[in-house]
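Memo to structure team: turn this sequence into structure tokens by end of day. - J.P.
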Amino acid sequence: MGRSAKLVGKLFSNNHIRHAILSHLDPSDVAFLRRVSILFCKKVTPTAFKTLTVTFRPLTFDSARLVALERIGHHIKKFRFVFPHTEETYMPPMLDPRSRKLVNLVFKPHARLGKHKGGPIFGSKRMDDLVLQNYGILMIAAADIRSFTEALKMMPNITNLTVCCPGIPMGEPGRRCIIDYALWSLRVAIERSGLQGLRSLHLEPMHMTGLQYFLPGTMSLGSKIDGHKAWANVRSLTMNISAWRPIAKARNGSMYVANLKFLHQYMEYFKFVRKLKFAWTSEARGVCPLTLDNLLYPPGNSIQQRRAGPNRELNFNKLCKLSLTNVAADATALKAFLCRHVSTFRQWSLNDVYFVNGTLEDALAPVKVTAVKDEHSELMQRAEEGGDQGYQLLCPYCHTGFEALLMV
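Reply from structure team:
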């Protein structure tokens, strides 16, 4: 029995063998394996805590959980933070129970960072009491930037961050909810914790109005001057945005245009991504996010004025892979985007894309198609044969082959 234990110990000392074995085990089995011996505990712990999922609750970052996170935080590579929309996250107008008058809630996150630990979050003890009486302890937890920052500092090796906001915000469109304050705190915490190894960012899904609170940049409230360093190394950006129907239907309304501007500014910040995936959720089809510069500017503006403005045309200098799902695109505008990036493209896909102006052939004009499979029967035939479903494209500048999956 002792020889068997030594043999197994030698096997687990080999990184390749250990990773191959642990990749075929369920998380519960990996957790049980840690209890076998001290040797197994040391070897299995980095794999057991490589991925962590946390659901936002009032006591998510209490002292006991922070102590536990301090012991395992350096092992975490993939962190998934879930902010569910529920009845508890809805924020009705705040009422003072004594005077029976409505009170405006003013929150400045940068003011909180200079306070000593345990001080008022909303500027005064009275305001904290009003927030607690109206919105509960979840609101206090959402605005506690210090707790968010302490938690992220204990996970310095995060390379993959996923922010998930399932559900639909309650109340009228555009009304701020508790999840918005939590996103606000998370963004400030990311910039202040210095996650230099962050490479992948996933927003799956996120409500459209929440982007303005998760918007990087020095002009955002609570941001540091060097806060951009936390986002500078992101090379993969995945966005699954929920344009819920009350906002999507009001396409000419100021709220819809304002949220599109936040979306455009958000994507403009990540200029050096190599892999970009964007999708509108199934609730409503939205406009193509890559060509918002044509929609957000009046037709009379000149090209020089448009480029000098805050919402310029999107340019991704190193974009290799692109995916669009459930979007309404203009063929001419998409063609212009392809012209700017055709020299770097290697693979891209269009899934459930509706062209409001022009055709697919017009949009594909910048690329040279070497093998066209635009007939539905031919696509089905390739699927039955088990071949690659897609178009084989050739870059007209460097003549390098790349793939484009088209499911329009």
